[in-house]
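Attaching the record inline, Q. Sequence:
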Amino acid sequence: MEILNDLPDEQFLDLDAFLSILSIYEDRTRTRRLQRHLRTMIQPDWVVVEAGAGLGHMTAYLAKRVKRVYAVEENALACRYLHYRFGNHPRVRVICSTIESWVPPEPVDLLFQELYGPLLYDESLGALERLQFKPRRVFPDGGALEVGLLDSRTLNDPVVKPDLVPLLNGALVADLVPGARFRPIGRVCTWHWPQGLHCQEVNLSGHPGDLVVFRLVVLHEGQVICRAEECPNWPLVFTYRAGDRFRLNFTYRDAYSRVELEWR
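Structure, as predicted:
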């Protein structure tokens, strides 16, 4: 989905982010897996905060099973829709705010979140380390970014040919080769609540391939909830192999994380 006409900057940004929210709901595998895990852990007397409620699909699911849901959403259009959908719901409170700037009026049993980016920490996950409250539990509570390599000469792709790959030098490109299959050789970064993010330098020496591939893995208590290949809400990310050693650096600013790829 793409906006094709000129709009004021603020309206464009709100609408662009809203369209991104719409695309999330095409990933039914992700929704089923999240709901299956939630069903085994939530209790009827719980107070739940949902960080990034979007259109309220998970809000509605939770509201049938717990005492109260605080649906927190910062996008103005999504928040307007949440008010329309849940304005009279006895168990739902819609909060138009960033999750890190809001303080709940009562103890929170569970914080439910989906703030992962394709590179794990490249969207809003860092907001959870700046909360003004301490939930008893967070779900999901972990994640990892795996890395592997592909040889572009073996790709059965009509566009991505070996002579094109070096042009990607320095860029991290999502969904370059849809359906690519690779074997991870290690982890670049891990995240766990409440400890936060840990990234390390990766050594690719001894592993063949000119196309570096990154895959998000969503975890809870060490158990895999979703992988990028299985849950298409999160695409694989590709870049040209410009050396044998690299690391990713993240800078959190204005509620989002920026990522830098550093080859050594």
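Residues 229 and 235 are 7 Å apart (CA to CA). The longest helix spans residues 9-24.

More tomorrow.
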